[in-house]
Amino acid sequence: MKNLSRSELLFSSENIKMVIQEDQQPEKFSRLHMIESRESFSLLFLLSPNIRLEANDCETKFLFRKNQYILHYSSKESTAELWTENQEALKYFHIQINYQYIFNLIDPASSKENADILENMIRNNYIFLHKKTPPYMTVEMHMILKELISYSKKGVMQRLFIEAKIIKLLILIFEQFNEKNITQAELGASLEIKKFIDENYHKNIRAEDIGKLTGINQNKIRKEFKAQYHMTVADYISELRMLKAKKMIIDKDIMIKEIAIECGYEYVQNFTRAFKKKFGVSPEKLRNG
Rounded to 5 degrees, what are φ and ψ at 143? Predict the structure, then answer.
């Protein structure tokens, strides 16, 4: 079988390097190598299921599920091997950050809290969270990754944009790490809510409706969903609807009114208002260029 492997360098500077790797039809037991530079932090987002990883500076082999991630510090140059089995696709997003850049950003001398954050990063305490399992990406992390991958400007604007998004990713990771008191029951409830929304966002649903159908109190739905995914239920529903609308808008055979209904809007004007707020242009203007 032909091996369709793509490694794309999205950005490279003195302090930051971003690579997306995709092996769409890997041969059985094929391996990809990821290099970590000396005194650097790696943010590794696993975007396909059942990725196995073995690092030469660690005796343990890891198995990652889709949408899990790690934040790893390497004091010396090291190589990690990643592979899947049974000819499964392999896709990951790797951000490598220079240690001195993180040091200057956090400024550990400024407070004990900042010093503790850097110490946790160096000791790799951010790799495994709840019950020794790698953490899962939040909805907001997914959105940031999409923005990083699709950003098209170059030069200083690109550098500033990427640095801002990486800082936001680190903030989300630190917040997630500090939420250790979240119980498995609460986590399970959040996942159940998200699953329901993912399957029904195109319908006219509200927190009250989700509560009735899942048996979870609507106030609890709002609180736990925001704590887990860092956005409100309404904002998440709107985000899913707009992503679907943007995909459909390029098909000129589908009327705007049909798209609005398909995306869960009873009235076209409400759809148009939401679309313009999200993308800065009306559906008609985006469609007609």
Answer: -65, -40
